[in-house]
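User: Batch of two.

Assistant: Item 1 of 2:
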Amino acid sequence: MCIFRYLCNKYGFEINGNIVMMKTKYFLLVITLMLASQFTFAQGKNKVIIDPELKQNVMIGYVDKEGLKTGEYGYYFNSQYELYSISDKTISKLKEKMGDVAVTIVLGTWCGDSKIQVPRFIKILDAINYPADHLNMIAVDARKEGLVVDIKPFDIERVPTFIFYRNGNEIGRIIETPKKSLEKDLMKIIR
């Protein structure tokens, strides 16, 4: 009860039965909203941390294309995106098949394969006008942890890992590098 009285006095609340209860509820609501806003802000996209193992900046948690195009990773993303070419024939085939497919990409902005394959894959998605709300990208550190995102359910061993879903069920993966090409491996998965 001493802490309660201290807080009431500190914030100007009078201890008079129902009045203090109303003010206490208001005070708790304000505190809850403040904490919730901090938590929401902490889970924003395109966060950068210093990886304790690599001793370098890495993106962590949810990321998007705009975040990948900037900063240290941006050089690799932009160059690979521009250099990669896709055939029009492949694009039309993929457009037909990708409509009901959701994609999750788990990547490392520190990883050589991610620096090459993720921009190329994003270029393919852009070419088929793939809806951004069907794509989740999660950046991990060198320990393959997303910190603010639990990636354990994805069972990630190597990055990048491209995971494809239809009707909420996993239908396939491309892990690290494609066997033939991103487009051919993707066509094999979604057919």
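Item 2 of 2:
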Amino acid sequence: MSLRGAAQRRRSNPGQRARLLDCFVASLLAMTCGRYAGLPNDVRTRGFTLVEIIVALAILALSLNVILPTMSDALWRTGEAEAQAEAASLACSLLAQAGTAVPLAGGEASGQFENGFRWQLRITPYGLGDQAMPLRAYKVVAAVFWGDARREYSVALTTLRLAGNGAGQ
């Protein structure tokens, strides 16, 4: 037998297709309207049994047991990544202020931003610093801290800046 012959036999039996369509429509009506009268015995829908409901709830509980910790961990990691990105941006801002708003001279400054992040700016002379040279290099370290008593996080950025050498001018 070929597949073509089977397909032709299916098409040539319209009575069977009509019975299947009637059965399908009747079962849809029974499910949506709740009418069971007049349906054949094999189409009647009685609902779910207690065992089926218990098995479905057990599967749901196991699925949630796996999914919820994963979602919680993902949310925590997202919050940490956002805090780290904000701290890096604040440290970059501190480095930009070194030499303009904050004079380049050896020393240390610290404070706290409005959003709760703490900062520290450390400026130290870099290298030997020949007194005869008109410029001097300074190492600038900007560190931003955040966290609580259990764990503290930090981001530190370092750069070199040139400033006038006071002795050589």
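The chain has two domains: 1-46, 90-164.
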